[in-house]
């Protein structure tokens, strides 16, 4: 069970059963603290403190390990967690962009990013839709991608 909670104006904390994810949490920029202050009464006082600049990648990691490992995400400030359901891209799959067709040539292991056109263009999920993020002069940034 891992829970995200705001810890200060500039930081948040991941706490709960984090022991088996120790190395990953460290690589993501977390610092272990065995004496956290102002935590809920029903929790122990240890966890991983992160700068809020790492929030997106920590949320992505917790999403990747799945709901069986993640109990909840507390949203007591301006942050929220959104979950999108999108088609999973496959290498060799045809995609359509502005009525032009391309073939996917690479998909990362989390299936949340892919490239096409011999690696020249890149796409990932943005606000629940596949969109271009690394493009050439043919397309605007955030051009919709249809799988």
Question: Class by helix and strand content?
Answer: mainly beta
Nearest-integer average pLDDT: 75
The parts where pLDDT drops under 50 for at least 5 residues are 68-76
Find the count of extended strands (DSSP E, 2+ residues): 10
Q: In percent, how helical is the residue content? A: 10-25%
Along the chain, the helix and strand elements come as: EEHEEHEEEEEE
Strand percentage lies at 25-35%
Rg for CA atoms: 19 Å
Features:
single chain; 2 domains; mainly beta; 5-stranded mixed β-sheet; 147 residues; elongated; 5-stranded antiparallel β-sheet
Concise structural overview:
The chain is mainly β. It is 12% helix and 33% strand. It folds into 2 domains: 2-73; 84-147, no CATH class.
Furnish the topology, listing elements before pairings.
Elements: E1 2-6, E2 11-16, H1 22-27, E3 31-33, E4 47-51, H2 55-65, E5 72-73, E6 94-97, E7 100-107, E8 113-116, E9 121-126, E10 129-134
Parallel strand pairs: 1-5
Antiparallel strand pairs: 1-2, 2-4, 3-4, 6-7, 7-8, 8-9, 9-10
Task: Describe this entry's structure for a reader.
Helix content is 12%, strand content 33%. The chain is mainly β and 147 residues long. The longest helix has 11 residues, at 55-65.
